[in-house]
Amino acid sequence: MSAVTTIRVNGAEEALGWGCVGDLLAARGIPPGTRGVAVALNGAVLRAADWTGTPLAAGDTVEIVRPFQGG
Amino acid sequence: MDDVFTLAGRRLGSRLLIGSSGYPNRQVMLDAIEASGAEVVTVSIRRISLEGYAESMVDLLGGRWTVLPNTAGCQTAKEAVLTARLAREALDIDWVKLEVIGDRETLHPDSEELLRATAELVGDGFQVLPYCGDDPVVCRKLADAGAAAVMPLGAPIGSGLGVSNPRAIERICARSPVPVILDAGIGTASDAALAMELGCAAVLLNTAVAKAEDPVRMAAAMKHGVEAGRLARSAGRIPILTHAEPSSPQLGLVGS
């Protein structure tokens, strides 16, 4: 069995190419403090103030969400 | 109408809450919400598109209306609790329309998971507005668990069937210690009026307006339906009789 080298972002596997959560978001055009965006790391909400500096490790699961139309 | 409604500590001038989903386009959505007179607009919480993200509902609605996030689509208490916490972080707001569905075919609430999620979120400081079945016992248990209101369905989500079990809704309203908001099933304005006549504190709807041929006109109809039902409820309707009762005087008839 080979070691895990990926993370799961919004349900999709990707190579672990970022040092911290803030870098992952910045690469998607979401700078720290973007209104209306929330992040969970491994099932727990990560406050926006902690995006920068919270390290990512292989096997991590990240959810990035925003409000959308809803009933 | 001077009839302030307090929901989860918020004073609202309208007893109609409206959804933001499924309108023909953004402008029709905004015009319909405006025409409805609603002050509270529901939104869902979804993964951002991995290609980036389009215009934000926060920018579109924020400031003008109070946003109420839902946990639509969640099937377990765990999913719903995380979604609610993400919503609080995204919107900086402490209330949630809690939805935990039992299956994707009926979209019927899963009462067991709903109660579990309600208790957990109440303990976490949320004002919880659970979407639930029209079951008086489940509604009481949700209130006991600390829900700020209960939101029984009138009929299945999106069905437009109206209020399928008016006697159950009436019973829930009569004994609920928290406001009862009829959520789901409304098809047209008379359904909204009926819900209010049965004693509901408010009505939450989406599809009946969004998918109407003229959503803006239907939104105005819903506003009036809710107001008419509320007025009729507070006016005290006449008893229902099984026989005729003449409305004109019986004395002084010509030829008597």
TrEMBL record, chain A:
SUPFAM superfamilies: MoaD/ThiS. Pfam families: ThiS. It comes from the Bacteria. InterPro entries: Beta-grasp_dom_sf, Mopterin_synth/thiamin_S_b, Thi_S, ThiS/MoaD-like. Signal peptide: none annotated. This is Sulfur carrier protein ThiS. It comes from Azospirillum oleiclasticum.
Automatic annotation (TrEMBL), chain B:
InterPro entries: Aldolase_TIM (IPR013785), Thiazole_synthase_ThiG (IPR033983), ThiG (IPR008867). 1-deoxy-D-xylulose 5-phosphate binds at G158, A184, G185, N206, T207. Residues 7-249 form the Thiazole synthase ThiG domain. The active site is at K97 (schiff-base intermediate with dxp). It comes from the Bacteria. Its EC number is 2.8.1.10. It is found in: Cytoplasm. It holds the Pfam family ThiG. The keyword Cytoplasm applies. It is an enzyme of class 2 (transferase). Pathway: Cofactor biosynthesis; thiamine diphosphate biosynthesis. This is Thiazole synthase. The gene is thiG.
